[in-house]
Specification:
The complex is a heterodimer of chains A (170) and B (310).
Chain A lengths: L2 H28 L17 H13 L4 H19 L20 H19 L3 H20 L10 H14 L1
Helix pairs in contact in A: 2-3, 2-6, 4-5, 5-6
Chain B lengths: L4 H18 L30 H12 L5 H17 L4 H12 L21 H10 L7 H8 L38 H26 L5 H14 L1 H25 L1 H9 L1 H8 L6 H22 L6
Helix pairs in contact in B: 3-7, 4-12, 7-8, 8-9, 8-10, 8-12, 9-10, 11-12
């Protein structure tokens, strides 16, 4: 390599280093931060939760808990087979099986909704059933609305979910 | 001196290197998303409220127009102080939250039969949680309410004497001290119940994060607890879940440890729109919900947090 070629190569390398340094300086200068911007929000496949609630509601007509449980399991199995991956639907907090492990909502489902449903199922007398249903309702309402939001704003799915279980125990 | 490209290149390179090494920043107004300091403010919630000029002016106005006398304010502040100690919630945050909810009007919306009422703007659902599930998040809450307020404080209710007349002003002819102890319109009961409910939101979120093994700063968690008090835990749970899903551990870790990021997440309309699209189909309802949340978070946190340039 002669002197002229070496000079040219050095200039190119120098230019690339300069571009890299200017880029880093620009990023620093403008202070771009990746968080907390969400890249996108994944939207549910249309109303899968409604399909699940349809199945449960149909089964609840027989007034049998075991029928409701079987319908629930069968519907979840079908949805899972269709989706392959665990569901990310944010309305599925009634159905922990459809939530990913890292979803915080699965914790609410496991720790608050499921025990309340179990108490409802185990309740033998009418007052016990009413009390268990009130606890379930209170947990759903406080989870969705907090202290200060009007009750009318409960999501349609939550209202329907509560209505189905209310019908089942009456 | 003759112009030499190599010299010019080296000089420019040196300037670029110096800028990078010194991490010189653009002025704030040029920066769209400011880079926050690495550590959370250690003085979060440890100041005398209200910090914001807006609330200071409003407090003076309420006092000068006799809507809130000095005696009433002292009574309320003492009750807030006592409740914050008992239920272990930050005094400043509780003060600012209650002021934002009702401007310390114990009878706010008292004549309504539905919707949010009283100093902490409680709904029936919130009363129901304390009546049915008081000990779920912090064991002993029910006993503490009975011990510190009145043995017959439970079950809590919206009872009010004399009965409300929609034509009359809600405060007229009523004294908060003469309300039954179980009434949310009794000032000590209302403040105790509100503190317990705020504590419940904190411990609900804390438990979930502990179970999942997510890192958080306990002080920053109170910011999310106040959002959960105001608009339900689900908003916070969905926001954090989505942040982790799309930004990874680092993004959610920053949200839960840095008050600037937490404030940004709770007050940025576009981010909340994306997060809550799956919760509220109706755009009008969603927009109203988000606007209210942002206004509340801005008011509460600028009243309660010092040093964080919110």
């Amino acid at each position: 390599m002669n002197l002229k070629d070496r000079k040219g190569a050095a200039l190119i390398v120098g230019f690339l280093v300069l571009v890299a340094l200017l880029f880093v300086a620009a990023v620093n200068w403008l202070g771009f931060d990746p968080a907390p911007v969400l890249k996108e929000a994944r939207i549910l496949a249309p109303h899968e939760e409604t399909l699940l609630l349809d199945e449960i509601e149909r089964a609840s007509a027989s007034r049998s808990w075991s029928d409701v449980e079987s319908a629930r399991k069968a519907a979840l199995k079908r949805l899972r087979a269709k989706n392959q991956a665990p569901g990310r639907g944010l309305r599925f907090y009634f159905f922990p099986e459809m939530l990913g492990d890292q979803s915080l909502e699965s914790d609410i489902s496991q720790e608050e909704i499921r025990p309340a449903l179990e108490s409802l199922r185990a309740a033998e007398t009418a007052p016990e059933r009413t009390s268990a249903l009130n606890t379930l309702r209170s947990r759903v309402e406080n989870y969705e609305l907090g202290a200060t939001t009007d009750e009318v704003q409960l999501s349609p799915e939550a209202s329907r979910f509560l209505w189905v279980y209310e019908k089942l125990i009456r | 001196m003759r112009f030499r490209p190599v010299t010019a290149l080296l000089a420019t390179g040196f300037v670029a290197f110096a800028l990078t090494a010194c991490q010189i920043r653009a002025p704030d107004d040029l920066v769209r998303h400011k880079r926050p300091p690495a550590a959370p403010d250690p003085e979060l919630f440890r100041v005398k409220p209200p910090l914001s000029e807006k609330f200071q002016r409003e407090l003076e106005f309420l006092n000068s127009t006799r809507q809130l006398s000095s005696e009433e304010l002292t009574h309320i502040e003492n009750a807030v102080k006592g409740s914050s100690k008992r239920y272990q919630v930050p005094y400043t945050l509780l003060w600012c939250l209650l002021f934002q909810e009702s401007r310390f009007d114990v009878f706010r919306n008292a004549s309504q039969t539905n919707g949010a009422r009283g100093i902490g703007q409680f709904t029936r659902a919130a009363l129901k949680e304390l009546n049915l599930d008081a000990d779920k998040f912090v064991p002993g809450t029910r006993a503490l309410l009975k011990k510190t307020i009145h043995p017959y404080v439970m079950p809590l209710s919206f009872t009010i004497v004399p009965k409300p007349d929609p034509k009359l002003e809600e405060r007229k002819g009523r004294k908060t001290e003469s309300q039954p102890h179980s009434s949310y319109f009794h000032v000590d009961t209302a403040i105790g119940a509100s503190a317990a409910y705020l504590g419940n939101r904190y411990h609900q979120l804390k438990r979930t994060l502990d179970r999942k093994g997510w890192k958080y700063d306990p002080e920053v968690l109170w910011m999310f607890a106040s959002a959960a008090y105001n608009k339900g835990s689900r908003t916070v749970y969905v926001l954090l879940t989505q942040q982790r899903e799309f930004g990874g551990d680092q993004a959610v870790n920053e949200l839960l440890t840095n008050p600037h990021f937490a404030f940004s997440a709770l007050t940025r309309k576009e981010l909340l729109e994306l997060s809550l699209t799956t919760l509220w189909d109706d755009p009008e309802r969603r927009s109203r919900y988000i606007t209210e949340l942002i206004a509340n978070m801005k008011a509460i946190h600028s009243c309660a947090i010092v040093g964080a340039r919110l």
